[in-house]
Amino acid sequence: MPYDIIVCLKQVPHPDYLGKITLDRATGTIVRAGIPCVVNPGDRNAVEEALRIRERYAGKITAITMGPPEARKAMEDVLALETDTAVHLCDYAFAGADTLATARALASGIRRLGHFDLILCGDTTIDSGTGQVAVQLAELLDLPCVTNVESIAFEDGQSLIVTRHWERGHVKVRMKLPGVLAVTERINEPRLPTILGIMGVAQKEIATWGAALLGVDTAQVGLCGSPTRFLQIGEFHAKRHGEVLKGPPEAMVTEAVNRLKRMELL
Ligand SMILES: Cc1cc2nc3c(=O)[nH]c(=O)nc-3n(C[C@H](O)[C@H](O)[C@H](O)COP(=O)(O)OP(=O)(O)OC[C@H]3O[C@@H](n4cnc5c(N)ncnc54)[C@H](O)[C@@H]3O)c2cc1C
Q1: Alpha-carbon distance 29 to 47, whole Å?
Q2: d(Cα 174, Cα 211) in Å, to the nearest integer?
Q3: pLDDT at residue 235 in the model
Q4: Which residue of 62, 66, 73, 99 sits with most ligand 1 atoms within 8 Å of its CB, as the best mutation to test the pocket?
């Protein structure tokens, strides 16, 4: 049986530029101008998993993102991987959203999409990495959710068996469909787009939906709808003090241990 899959993906600063993120104190929102962005790495694994499910069972893959106008590029990137359609939730009313406000906007976009069997997300993003959105989205859509997913097996058209990473190993979980899965980067190795895939993007439509079209209450999304606020963003600089001990190894070890004891680290 074919499965209709929705993949949620976020455009994030390129990993080499994460330290360049600053906060606009006036608006309390993130300054991304001039920072190259990419599709969140974990979301590429979610797209790859959707492509593998479609290869086995057929069905349709819709990619969805909430983000500023430049996030359209992320949609083009996943259409180049030959997902079927893409939806870009873009409106100034969505700006400055915390995770709950992000999940609310995504939930309203997904409700407008209508029928689906499975929502795939990454576990976390590389910029803020709260790992909250997939779970909040499931709650808002009143759906089951499993996180840290490392393998997915379709039991029948109604349920899945997923392997979930757990600090002491793995657990197998049965989840009824429709539902939300947050996958880890260990679930698969994402493919690269083909030339044909890249050329095919121009023929595919990226729908751009705003707050009015979705009928969302703007007090529930964006900065207005965010119960958490940024106060400060700062880079953590570990102050390391290095010193080379000289002398016979036993004496150096003794000296090192004594120092650690004095620093109450032993
Ligand atoms: C440095 C920094 C720190 C932040 N700290 C917080 C915080 O502590 N609390 C808070 O509420 N907000 C915080 N935010 C804001 C937060 O980044 C946004 O709300 C963001 O849209 C979602 O949070 P996340 O990146 O942590 O997502 P996660 O919950 O880490 O993302 C999990 C998955 O959800 C999906 N997803 C996430 N965002 C989107 C999107 N915009 N469109 C489509 N799919 C998406 C993706 O599949 C992703 O892999 C922070 C932002 C930054 C840059």
Answers
A1: 28
A2: 35
A3: 65
A4: 99
Say if residue 1's pLDDT is above 90: no
Of 133, 136, 139, the one to substitute when testing ligand 1's pocket (max ligand atoms within 8 A of C-beta) is 133
Q: What is the spatial distance between Cα 62 and Cα 84, in angstroms, rounded to a whole number?
A: 6
pLDDT tens digit sequence for 145-187: 999 999 999 998 899 999 999 888 999 999 999 999 999 999 9
Ligand 1 pocket, CB under 6 A: 8-10, 21, 30, 40, 42-43, 46, 65-67, 97-99, 102, 106, 121-122, 124-125, 127-134, 228, 233
DSSP string, 176-223: ESSEEEEE-TTS--PPPPPHHHHHHGGGS-EEEE-HHHHT--GGGSTT
Give the chain's end-to-end CA distance (angstroms, integer): 60
Kindly give the distance from the C-alpha atom of residue 79 to the centroid of ligand 1, in angstroms, as a whole number. 22
The residue nearest atom 1 of ligand 1, judged by CA position, is: 128
Residue whose structure tokens are 């999304």: 221
DSSP string for 26-61: TTTEEE-TT--EEE-HHHHHHHHHHHHHHHHH-EEE
| Overall CATH class of domain 3-220 | alpha beta
Phi, psi values for residue 21, rounded to 5° = -70, 130
